[in-house]
Amino acid sequence: MMKRKWLFWFGLAVLLTVVISACSNEEVKEDVVKEENVVVDVDPTRYLDPISILSRPQSAAPDEYETAILIRDALIELGAETEVQTMPWEQLADIVWYERDQWQMTGWQMAARPERLDPDEFTYNLFHSQGMVDGYNFMGYNNPEYDALAEAQRVEVNQDVRADLIKQAQQLIADDAVYHFTVHPDINIVYNKDVFDEGTITDMTGMGARNFWTYVNAEPSGDQTDIILNSADNVQAVNPFYISGSTDSWITELIWDRVMRMNDKGLPEAWAAESVKWVDDTTVSVVLRDGMTFHDGNPVTAEDVKFSFEAPKTGEVPMYQPFVEYIEEIEVLNDLELVFHLSQPWAAFETASLAKLNIVPKHIWEPILTDLQDSPENAESFQEDVPVGSGPYKFDALRFQEEVVLEANEEHFNAPKFDRWIVRIIPNMEAALGMIQNGEINFLATYTGDAELLNTRVEEAGNLEMVTSVDLGFRFFAVNQRLEPFNNLAFRKALQAVIDKQLITQIVWKGFATPADSVIAPTLEFWKNEGIETPTGGIAEARNILSEAGFAWDEDGKLLKPE
After folding, report:
1. Residues of 292-315 as b/e, b for ≥16 C-beta within 10 angstroms?
2. Which H helix or E strand runs over 85?
3. What is the pTM of this model?
4. CB neighbours of 528 closer than 8 A, spacing ≥ 6?
5. What is the dihedral of CA 507, 510, 511, 512, to 10 degrees?
6. 240 by DSSP, 3-state: which?
């Protein structure tokens, strides 16, 4: 408690220092703008278009909104007219994802998912140029040098060599100012000890207590047999072929099984498979568990698994295409046995593919994909009336903007100990905090409000327990490199210089976060590049970067593009 208070006051001191420093730099600012880089007769085409930063509302994501305000103010001080535009998560995500030439800058987060404990997904899927059209490379980054690094790490079986490639990739992303990282948040998960047996809550590496293993293995400590948790974001879809928001991923993990899963230590282990064996560097034998059924009663077979891994190659499941790219052929031996033949060695195959793809029922999805072939839509936009998987929970109800209800699948080989799993959509963090206190929810899965206040409330309550860990995921601001001024590297580097991560950590997050400089969390020490260098000199350095690249200012201090 004392440590957090100290961090808060330290943060205030830092803020005062920044303000004083900014004042002391006014002379530098005046010299740069008025003497060396001022244009009197301005060509009107040199003015920057106003910049819009997209963010979720303050009530739903105060950290994102407050960071956006800090960035807005810094850009205004640089002479760029800037505004923050707020909108609900589902609207923001649709614009960023499906209207890729219609936004300039946006707050974003990469959620912690078990398969992301291996760096392949973040390294390859986020930044490889093949994802520019409809993949995760929504900001339009295109660098052949980076593509080569991302491809090389995928097939490198020597882990030390692979780690070096991953570290080179991290530095190149920093050099190209692709993402503007802010923090790896602390994961603060609160649960009700009157509802949960404390010894059955799983604190998973990089995920915290909010994870698949908690949901399937936690045991009730009393009469309450529903897990009732919260989310600030609306559910976009319950679809096994759509990689959407973090809340959606909690649901799909529970409804659909996977050949393998990441265990609580962050390592892949057989799940729907009884065994996974490497025959050689490019051949993998899989034997499925006997007796598995989908929620509609049909058996899970090797043909269903084959279909699930071949579907992304049809063009109807673009998000999952990178995770099957090196699968050359899938050979079905019988109802329970199949063999994966890879086109080349793939170091992350178990994590990035076998533990990533959902097993879907072929008898349901094959006709759907066939119909979609003559449609401009694809499988990502299709919503089953009743989603059918084979996982430990079965779909019960979706009430849009209210809740999703899942029922325990008592026939599952790892049947949950709770009867139902219910996620309620609660955009307001103050309301969520009140609900965990009064028992309306019993598992606070999302909290982006004042962490110091949360800690105090937990200490005051006798029935609440908080589990804190560093998030595998990270927060950042993405810029659209298809559009001005973010297609200019100097402008992106100047933006790096004015984003004060230490200030954001102390003032916005009140010390409950770790400054981020790459996609790799500090907890993944083996893969983390600890020597990443980026501009950090604030407004003064940003002005120097811009002026050296040909930017200038008019007499009123408005920023001008290079001639």
Report:
1. bebbeeebbbbbbbbbbbbbbeee
2. strand 82-86
3. 0.73
4. 167, 170, 518, 520, 521, 522
5. -130
6. coil
Distance (Å, whole) CA 362 – CA 438: 44
Parallel, antiparallel or unpaired: strands 559-560 and 260-262: unpaired
CA atoms within 13 A on the CB side of 380: 20
Give ∠ CA 189-10-468 in degrees, rounded to 5.
15
pLDDT in tens, 357-404: 999 999 999 999 999 998 899 999 899 999 999 999 999 999 988 999
One-letter amino acid of 30: E
Q: Which of 125, 148, 146 is nearest to 137 (CA)?
A: 125
For residue 428, CA distances in Å to 112, 184, 473 come to: 22, 22, 22
Extract the tokens encoding 340: 């994966």
Q: Tokens 């993405």 map to which residue?
A: 478
* DSSP symbols for 166-180: HHHHHHHHHHTT-EE
The helix, strand and coil proportions of the chain, stated in percent and rounded to the nearest 5, come to: 40, 20, 40
Give the strand pairing for 105-110 and 474-479.
antiparallel
From 390, 367, 366, 212, select the one nearest 288 (Cα to Cα): 390
Distance CA 393, CA 389 (A): 9
Take residue 55 and report the two structure tokens written for it: 């963010």
| 405 Cβ neighbours under 8 A, 6+ residues apart | 396, 397, 398, 420, 421, 422
Sheet containing strand 327-332, strands side by side:
273-280, 283-288, 337-342, 327-332
531 phi-psi bin (left φ>0, alpha ψ -120 to 50, beta other): alpha
High-pLDDT (> 70) share of the chain, %: 94
CA-based nearest residue to 493, from 560, 530, 548? 548
Question: Which residues of 232-303 form beta strands (DSSP E)?
Answer: 260-262, 268-270, 273-280, 283-288
What are the beta bridge partners of residue 395? 406
> Rounded to an integer, what distance in angstroms lies between the CA atom of residue 114 and that of residue 152?
23
> What local confidence, expressed as pLDDT, does residue 102 receive?
95
State both tokens at 204: 């998973």
- Cβ neighbours, 10 Å, residue 130: 18
- CB atoms under 10 Å from CB of 91, counted, come to 13
C-alpha to C-alpha distances, 19 to 246, 351, 431, 558, nearest whole angstrom: 36, 46, 34, 21
Q: Which residues of the chain have pLDDT under 50?
A: 1-32, 34
